[in-house]
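Treating backbone geometry as a discrete language has practical consequences that deserve illustration. The sequence in question and its structure tokens are set out directly beneath this paragraph.
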Amino acid sequence: MKKEEVGSFVESFFENDHTGHGLDHLHRVVKMSQFLAQEEGMSPLEKENIYFLAWLHEMLDKKFFPNETLAKEQLTAFFKTQGLSEEEENFWIKNIQGISFSKRTKENNFPLWVKIVQDADLLDAIGAIGIGRTFMYGATHGSLMYDPQKAGIKDSSILQHFDDKLLKIPDLLSTSAGKEIGQERKQIMLDFLKAFKKEWEGQ
């Protein structure tokens, strides 16, 4: 595959995104995955695969492509323009699906190079940027910012999402460097939540 053509293909789908999954997110995942690849000592081929997977990782996400059949058809049509064989197409589809958090199994039986992109994607969901993205996504979907009367009830507010998922992410990371960054970003979220709840009470 050609890097510039992969980038252009993906950008055409996300250039107008306002849910926190726009081009800035994609660029950060690409950059973080390259950093983690270097830290984990990946080979040149693995680094190239990581680069492509980082760019393509949202292309089968049901949040943006609810019609799974159509999403696969669009992706396959692009792969054909890149001269990929059917075997290669299936290889990429399988690994792109492996990035989806909702489809991730407890065993997570994927090679390390795929797990690096998983980590990069998850890391962008936490920390200071993650806080901003969470509120962007919640606002575009009409979620309540916070309701202390419903604290602890799954999906009851944007703030509840931190307890439902985001604070658990550092324990799901696979790479050593990712785990270290994850703990730093978890603390940022904990500090934010403490300040938020204090201010909510007018203090």
